[in-house]
């Protein structure tokens, strides 16, 4: 059992006329086996939270801690965080020309596991994982994200989550841009990983649609860089019916 | 790649219209004010024009159906600059490698030139592929010395020639190599120019079409390390109808404060009025690994007829993409491994088609050295 604890996290980005604070004190604790949905309107800072956890250089943590089983991951480099068990499924993963999916995945698996997987076992593992996400085996020979459709990119992200077996996964709008079939495949992938246990997930989303397929244990409403309301799955239903307006107004009135 | 694209246009292609002579005295003394030398550190050319010089030794390993002889025959190439003329005039005897018509070689012809002399060394080689022959030729230049070379390729009608040209000189060397290719009707040239550096390495691959349907693909991968100047000047001189040229060069540069790295790529394409149906494309991409490196990239396209199949060019020079590095690192891969993977990927499309695995691996090894 592992715990990811985000304590009073403040994050800024460089902007015209000085740094701009995007996260204004985020507090959240995720445990193994839990699925936390983070929902919020555009520009609320959801993606900043995702990238700050992963250590993207664009974002500066001005105060707060992020503890993974007591260790402050903010003191770690990007790759160290990944090896410590953090995974970020990106909303817009970049193309890496000339690097095949199979080379990329094997390099990543070698780094995270601390040793190169045995060739024969790896081939089988990759094949099974791709099959479970309805991916054509020829996909492994393509270059990373090059010419991938939106659905292929997201499947590829979930494939990595499955193979790298993180303690905590942050899924940054993995549902956006997917058609219903692709959404189902990706959701089933996430559910299958959870069924094995051993992972806690932060599901960042703008829409409630994915929550019909991936059942969250907790729903957090994110407005203006902080969590303003928390509840169970019923909170998502309220957001579905009434939108974010009430929370936005409350949050702004409180400032 | 982040886009710090810069290239200039409309520089006259004087390699075609200018002086042609085998006598160096017919060309003006070289200075950086002349267009064709303006990117070159001309002081480093001095050893090539010194009074003392010698002939370079050429080692040729030839399979069956290939004849090797020394000849005084002039060849078809007439120099268009002073260093080429110097090289020509200092190489009265030519190594001629002839591939019999219709011959299909199972083994590559291997030609090695090692330049390690105290004075500049010169060499001229003519590789003549007979009608409908199929041949792979591997040429290497290595060493600590300096010199000049003319490597003339002749592909008769219907010949298929694959040419791999690897250069790996020391940072004290100056080497200028002209590689004119004469393509007969329907001849096919696939050339892979792999340049791993040298104090001044200037390579001038030119394509001259002698019959319709000829098809030239010039690929290049180059690495400019500390103290290196790596310069390529390609020319596709489309004088004949329905020919094709495809030029794609990629470079990786990494220097140090004390010893910067420099690369120059000039891609000239000239489509004469008679060359209807021409299909041409040229591309140059450079990856600048640090602030101690500079890449110049100049595509020149001159078109005298509108009746062509296609003509285009692309040029971009940029730094390593931080988002790619972040993506790989976010999967647990350390920065050095991530960088190597991205840069190897940058070269991959060019290296994957190099027929000599040995040469391609040499590039990969050098890349690892430069990135370390």
Task: Describe the 3D structure.
The complex is a heterodimer of chains A (about 260) and B (about 375). Chain A is about 35% helix and about 30% strand. Chain A has about 260 residues and is an alpha/beta fold. Chain A has a single domain (about 5-95, about 165-255), classed as Rossmann fold. In chain A, the strands form 3 sheets. In chain A, strands 6-9-10-3-11-12 form a 6-stranded mixed beta sheet, sandwiched between helices. In chain A, strands 2-1-4-5 form a 4-stranded antiparallel beta sheet. The longest helix of chain A has 16 residues, at about 180-195. Chain A is globular. Chain A starts with a strand and ends with a helix. By secondary structure, chain B is of the alpha/beta class. Helix content of chain B is about 15%, strand content about 45%. Chain B has helices spanning about 15, 45-50, 80-90, 320-330, 335-350, 355-370, and strands at about 55, 60, 65-70, 95-100, 110-115, 120-130, 135-145, 145-155, 160-170, 175-185, 190-195, 200-210, 215-225, 230-240, 245-255, 260-270, 280-290, 295-305, 310-320. In chain B, helix 4 (about 320-330) crosses helix 5 and helix 5 (about 335-350) packs antiparallel against helix 6 (about 355-370). The relative contact order of chain B is 0.12. Classes of the chains: A alpha/beta (about 260), B alpha/beta (about 375). The interface of A and B includes residues 56, 83 and 94 of A.
């Amino acid at each position: 059992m592992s715990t990811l604890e985000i304590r009073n996290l403040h994050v800024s980005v460089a902007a015209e006329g000085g740094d701009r604070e995007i996260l204004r004190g985020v507090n959240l604790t995720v445990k193994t086996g839990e699925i936390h949905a983070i929902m919020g309107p555009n520009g609320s800072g959801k993606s900043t939270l995702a990238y700050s956890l992963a250590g993207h250089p664009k974002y500066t943590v001005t105060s707060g801690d992020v503890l993974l089983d007591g260790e402050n991951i903010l003191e770690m480099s990007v790759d160290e965080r990944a090896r410590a068990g953090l995974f970020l499924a990106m909303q817009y993963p970049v193309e890496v020309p000339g690097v095949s999916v199979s080379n990329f995945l094997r390099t990543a698996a070698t780094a995270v596991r601390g040793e190169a997987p045995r060739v024969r076992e790896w081939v089988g593992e990759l094949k099974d994982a791709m099959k479970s996400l309805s991916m054509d085996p020829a996909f492994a020979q393509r270059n990373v994200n090059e010419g991938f459709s939106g659905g292929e990119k997201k499947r590829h992200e979930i494939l990595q989550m499955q193979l790298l077996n993180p303690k905590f996964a942050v899924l940054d709008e993995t549902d956006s841009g997917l058609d219903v079939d692709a959404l189902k495949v990706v959701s089933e992938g996430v559910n299958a990983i959870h069924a094995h246990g051993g992972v806690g997930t932060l599901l960042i989303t703008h829409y409630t649609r994915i929550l019909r397929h991936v059942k969250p244990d907790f729903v957090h409403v994110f407005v203006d860089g902080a969590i303003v309301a928390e509840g169970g799955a019923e909170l998502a239903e309220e957001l579905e019916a009434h939108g974010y307006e009430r929370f936005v107004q409350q949050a702004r009135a409180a400032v | 790649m982040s886009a710090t694209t810069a290239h200039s246009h409309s520089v006259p292609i004087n390699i075609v219209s200018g002086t042609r002579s085998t006598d160096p005295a017919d060309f003006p003394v070289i200075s950086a004010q002349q267009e064709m030398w303006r990117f070159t550190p001309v002081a480093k050319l001095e050893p090539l024009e010194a009074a003392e010089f010698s002939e370079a030794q050429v080692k040729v390993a030839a399979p069956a159906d290939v004849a090797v002889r020394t000849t005084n025959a002039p060849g078809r190439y007439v120099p268009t600059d002073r260093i080429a003329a110097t090289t020509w005039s200092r190489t009265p005897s030519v190594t001629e490698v002839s591939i019999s018509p219709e011959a299909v070689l199972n083994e590559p012809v291997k030609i090695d030139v090692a330049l390690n002399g105290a004075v500049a060394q010169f060499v001229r080689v003519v590789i003549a592929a007979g009608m409908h022959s199929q041949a792979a030729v591997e040429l290497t230049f290595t060493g600590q010395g300096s010199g000049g070379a003319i490597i003339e390729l002749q592909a008769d009608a219907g010949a298929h020639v694959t040419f791999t040209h690897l250069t790996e000189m020391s940072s004290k060397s100056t080497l200028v190599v002209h590689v004119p290719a004469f393509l007969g009707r329907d001849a096919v040239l696939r050339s892979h120019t792999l340049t791993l550096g040298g104090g001044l390495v200037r390579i001038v691959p030119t394509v001259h079409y002698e019959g319709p349907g000829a098809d030239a693909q010039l690929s290049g991968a180059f690495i400019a390390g500390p103290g290196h100047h790596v310069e390529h000047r390609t020319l596709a001189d489309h004088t004949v109808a329905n020919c094709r040229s495809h030029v794609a060069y990629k470079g990786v540069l990494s220097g140090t404060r004390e010893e910067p790295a420099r690369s120059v790529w000039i891609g000239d394409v000239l489509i004469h009025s008679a060359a209807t149906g021409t299909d041409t494309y040229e591309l140059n991409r450079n990856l600048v690994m640090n602030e101690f490196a500079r890449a110049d990239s100049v595509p020149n396209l001159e078109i005298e007829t509108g009746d062509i199949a296609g003509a285009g060019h692309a040029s971009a020079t940029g730094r390593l993409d931080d988002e790619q590095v972040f993506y790989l690192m976010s999967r647990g891969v350390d920065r050095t491994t991530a960088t190597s993977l991205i840069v190897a990927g940058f070269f991959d499309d060019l290296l994957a088609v190099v027929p000599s695995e040995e040469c391609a691996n040499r590039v990969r090894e050098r890349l690892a050295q430069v990135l370390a």
